[in-house]
Amino acid sequence: MSPSEARRINIEAWQTGGMFQAAYYQEHGLNTKTFGNWVRKYPAGQVVRSSALVPVTITIKRMSMPVNTWRLRTRDDHVLELPSTVSLYWLRELLRCL
Which residues does residue 73 pair with via DSSP β-bridges, in sequence order? Predict the structure, then answer.
């Protein structure tokens, strides 16, 4: 396998695998700077991008007590529970990263 083929395979595997860059290069024994350079230099037209959106339904239920937590639930019943004091800006950035 040529070096350029190895770069392409690693970049596409990282992009489609849903891992953070640091987790990917550590798991595969790649050098931090080398992998970052590969990603930066990889031709933009060849980059694999996942455009999948995660549907989120927001349901507001009336409660007699104040809400202390936010619960975000996916269709397959994964739940993310956060304190209601969390910044909405932070929550927006978290959802953007997911």
Answer: 79
3-class state of residue 83 by DSSP: strand
**Would you kindly state where each structural domain of the chain is located, as residue ranges?**
3-46, 53-98
Sign of the dihedral through C-alpha 38, 40, 43, 47? positive
The Cα–Cα gap between 50 and 15 comes to 8
SS3 of residue 33 by DSSP:
helix
* Strand runs labelled E in the chain: 69-73, 79-83
* Stretch 50-73: mean pLDDT: 65
Whether 54 shows a pLDDT value over 70: the answer reads no
- Asked if residue 7 lies in contact with residue 38, where contact means CB atoms within 8 angstroms, the answer is yes
Q: How much is the mean pLDDT over the chain?
A: 75
